[in-house]
Amino acid sequence: MKINLNSIIIGAGPSGIGCMLALRRAGIDKVLLLEGNTVGSSFKRWPKQMRLITPSFYGNPFFCTDLNAISPNTSPADHSKKEHISGSEYADYLSAIVNHYNLNIRENEKALEITPNSTGFSVKTAKANYNATTLIWAGGEFLNPKLGNFDGNEFCTHSSEFNDWKDYKHDEAFIIGGYESGIDAAYNLINLNKKVTLLSSDQPWNSKSLDPSETLSPYTRERLLEIIESYPNRLSLIGNSRVVRIKKISSKYIIHTSSGKLFESDQKPISATGFHSALNPIKKLWEWNGSIPKFTNDDESTLYPGLYYSGPSLVHRGSKFCFIYKFRGRFGVIARSIAKRIDYPYNHKEIETHRGFLIDDLECCTKCDCAVESKDTKIVDSDDLDINPSTMN
Is pLDDT above 50 for 371? Predict the structure, then answer.
């Protein structure tokens, strides 16, 4: 069975559903979203204690759309009545949107093969073959964990593998990675009365960057200060100490760092070193500059016109669009581009007047001359905040 469509979207997370809503606001029909699992499935796999680091607040009537909303007229805060929402709560918000708008989504139907052709793209699943003029890849990153670029990374457990930090039964933990997921893991383990040694290649907690994609969010930094002040004997925060190798000797894990220090752990270290690009499954359909994918001004593949990407791996002018409030600004850009490509008389007003959902002037996003430099508020004055670490000299 072959089904012809204007657009196929792969992935039922915030970017996929958000793009589908943008296409609907533009008046574009014959759109299908395919999801290999269920709506919001990646969020359902978050550790139980993990929360969105961007706050949710219902300010929509005053043109201040909730930072985590994927459409102008909805709000996760209004739906959950919480400011920092769990993964499962955010998945519930996405499901509520799908049900409310009766979106054409097919769950548990995985795209097995994507092939560019003369009229657009064909997508093969176990149930059908689909043809579409355009395709939006909206896969996320959470299911593609990165264990770390060092020898012996197979001896680590990635932070995304924990469904509940209460399942961690050891008294001590070594965490590799000092950004959001590393601090989140440390915060939750310390609150469970564990001792934590956290190793970071730099000191993101002391960064002066104004871009939350490059440093710790205020929410994460606040929680880090909380555990330092409340539990001063449970955290060893070690910056400028990149892990270069892990060896297993008998039942011990020996962690070698760039600073020359060795650390000995009785249990597998926890790797909080991020995630691979969401575009890896269709890497051959994209042009790359090293590990960075290239995009047109409309977020298309430079190799295959009509193939779009929406989600946290989006990069423009060296600036990352990895937060929901960032990449949702491109939903309208993609919808407008698709409308023009299929020569569709789209609804200009509906996609171009919603503040924050069509940002095509990237100058302010990637370069801000009006920023006021923040004051120096270091969490740690030296490279190390060593409080009873387990070390080998």
Answer: no
Encode pLDDT of 225-246 as tens digits: 999 999 989 999 999 999 999 9
Other residues' Cβ atoms within 10 Å of the Cβ of residue 1: 6
Report all structural domains of the chain as residue ranges with CATH numbers, in order of start: 2-143+276-360 (3.50.50.60), 153-273+373-392 (3.50.50.60)
Rounded CA-CA distance 155/61 in Å is: 50
The answer to whether the pTM exceeds 0.85 is yes
- Range 93-112 average pLDDT: 97
Assess contact for 303 and 286: CB atoms under 8 A.
yes
Work out the end-to-end distance of the chain between its first and last CA atoms, rounded to an integer number of angstroms.
Answer: 66
Could you tell me which residues come within 8 angstroms of residue 237 by beta carbon, excluding any fewer than 6 positions away?
178, 198, 200, 205, 224, 228, 379, 380, 384, 385
Per-residue confidence (pLDDT) for residue 376, from 0 to 100: 54
Sheet holding 270-271, edge to edge: 157-158, 270-271, 172-176, 195-199, 235-238, 384-385
Flag whether pLDDT at 389 surpasses 70. Answer: no
Q: Which two tokens stand for residue 368?
A: 């801000």
Residues whose CB is less than 8 angstroms from the CB of residue 219 and which lie 6 or more positions away in sequence, other chains included: 51, 53, 54, 55, 84
- Judge whether 230 and 63 are in contact, CB under 8 Å: no
Q: What average pLDDT does this structure show over 263-273?
A: 97
Q: How far is CA 391 from CA 234, 342, 382, in A?
A: 15, 62, 18
Please tell me the distance from the alpha carbon of residue 214 to that of residue 202, in angstroms, as a whole number.
12
> Which residues does residue 86 pair with via DSSP β-bridges, in sequence order?
51
Mark out the alpha helices in 233-306 (DSSP H runs): none
Packing angle between helix 180-191 and helix 218-230, nearest 10 degrees?
30
For 298-314, how does the pLDDT look when each residue is reduced to its tens digit (9 = 90+)? 999 999 999 999 999 99
Q: For 172-202, what is each residue's pLDDT tens digit? A: 999 999 999 999 999 999 999 999 999 999 9
Q: How far apart are CA 75 and CA 68, in angstroms?
A: 7
